[in-house]
Amino acid sequence: MLSTDLSRIWKSPEFQRALHAPCEKIHHRVLRKNPLKNLRIMLNLNPYAKTMRQNTILRQAKNHRLRMDKAAAVLEAKSDEKPVVGRKERRLWALRSRRSLWWGERLQLPRNQQLRRSPQKRNPPQRKRSPWHKLKLFIPERSSHFTLDS
User: Fold this and answer.
1) CA distances to 8, 15, 117 from 18, in Å
2) Domain assignment of residue 100, yes or no
3) What's the CA angle centered on 18, arms 13 and 22, to 5 degrees?
4) Is 146 exposed, middle or buried (0-12, 13-18, 19+ CB in 10 A)?
5) Taken in order 61, 67, 70, 71, is the CA torsion positive or negative?
6) Would you say 39 and 47 are in contact if contact means Cβ atoms under 8 Å apart?
7) pTM of this prediction?
8) Average pLDDT over every residue of 54-68
9) Which of 44, 66, 68, 71 is most buried, judging by how many CB atoms fall within 10 Å of its CB?
10) Count of structural domains within the chain
11) Helices (H), strands (E): how many in the chain?
């Protein structure tokens, strides 16, 4: 190496021919979206998903309507009372009908009013065992026929 001028050596055509061309395109990472939550991304993957979703919504609405008609028929057959007039009676009727349909005559209390088990009942303390239980030694009990004097 005769010349110590490094910048001139690096810029020389012989040096530049041996090097790779600089990469000018910068690739940015794009956040991947979840197709199960994002409809537009799902449609890119599966165009039939839109039709499937519409059919599902229509089917659910039809099933809901059928269920409500059936429940109304059951309630109408069951009730001998006069029709509901006031707001309070309407609310009671709705509660009664909901209770009998979904919870089998038992309405569940809200989460904050339910009885909770105490922390001790939830996770009872474990009994600590000594390391001697692993040895399984036979230790005779004290009795009259196990004496050393005889």
Assistant:
1) 15, 6, 76
2) yes
3) 90
4) exposed
5) negative
6) no
7) 0.35
8) 94
9) 71
10) 1
11) 6, 0
